[in-house]
Automatic annotation (TrEMBL):
TM annotation in the entry: 12-34
Protein name as annotated: TX264 protein
Alphabetically ordered keywords of this record: Membrane, Transmembrane, Transmembrane helix
The keyword Transmembrane belongs to this UniProt entry's keyword annotation: yes
Length: 188
């Protein structure tokens, strides 16, 4: 009788462990899906979603996966501003140590001017300030940035989608390096 109870409790314990493993795997799968695993990269060309912008940014050279810390740096200074990422190189053709990127926060759009206080706060933490003129025509890629894993998924999916779009549409660009990928609505 004791042996049967021991065997039954072993089966119950194994069942609980199996259930926990299944729940853990489902949680991980849900996180990866939420991060954008099955989300389509939408590429389009036309009028830009923004006019001229002034931004505070930091420039780096290295693997794009290291850009997450720069997003965090910008959010820690001002969580109410939109983030922007400018990725200059195609990571499928340029070695990761040579990839260039600038990450920052949009301080103002259109005719609005950023406050001097805002500019000084970002400069205090090593950000540079730059104003982009309004572009007349852009190629854009949209991909969600919901978790830190999203940036890794995007690195592997956005540039190939842009390459394909540029080759198929023959829009006159020589490479994806001409295209800027903007991340908007990043929540800190």
């Amino acid at each position: 009788m004791e042996h049967q109870a021991s065997v039954m409790s072993d089966w119950v314990l194994l069942g609980l462990i199996a259930a926990l493993v299944v729940l853990l795997l489902l949680t991980v799968f849900g996180f990866v899906v939420y991060s954008g695993l099955f989300t389509e990269v939408v590429v389009s060309a036309g009028s830009p979603p923004v006019s001229n912008i002034t931004l505070a940014y930091k420039f780096r050279v290295g693997p794009y996966g290291e850009s997450g810390q720069l997003f965090t740096d910008g959010c820690s200074i001002s969580s109410k501003l939109c983030s922007i990422g400018v990725y200059y190189d195609n990571p499928h053709t340029v070695s990761p140590e040579k990839c260039r990127f600038a990450i920052g926060r949009i301080l103002s759009e259109g005719d609005a001017k950023p406050s001097e206080e805002q500019i000084k706060r970002f400069q205090k933490y090593g950000f540079k300030i730059f104003s982009f003129p309004a572009p007349s025509h852009v190629v854009m890629a949209t991909f969600p940035f919901t978790t830190p894993l999203s940036i890794h998924l995007a690195v592997n999916r956005v540039h190939p989608a842009l390459d394909t779009y540029i080759k198929v549409s023959k829009c006159g660009m020589k490479s994806v390096a001409c295209v800027r990928w903007t991340v908007r609505g990043f929540s800190c």
